[in-house]
């Protein structure tokens, strides 16, 4: 997976460093394996494959970011369970 951004973004000299210092960006060290390895998770819809990567990055960032990741996963699991309930009701119905 590679993500290429189209268009152009630029910062004035020192602007990005100032934004990082101000906490506007979350910076983390990541392994090449995390960034470059192909991702395919059996049973996961192709449209959701990218979510696994972002959950891994959020966990790597730790603290509040890890909580965001866990909360999001729990919400998705709850939504999946509700969808399965409705499917069962509709099939019985």
Key traits:
about 90 residues; mainly alpha; about 60% helix; elongated
Number of strands: 0
Assign a percent range to the helix content.
55-70%
Shape: elongated
SSE succession: HHHH
* Alpha carbon gap, first and last residue: 42 Å
Q: What Rg do the Cα atoms give?
A: 18 Å
Number of helices: 4
What would you say this structure looks like, in words?
The structure is a single chain. With 93 residues, the protein is mainly alpha-helical. α3 runs antiparallel to α4 (63-92). The termini are far apart. Helix content is 59%, strand content 0%. It is built from 4 helices and no strands.
Helix/strand layout:
Blueprint: H1 15-21, H2 32-36, H3 49-61, H4 63-92
Helix pairs in contact: 3-4
Outline of the structure:
It is elongated, with a radius of gyration of 18 Å.
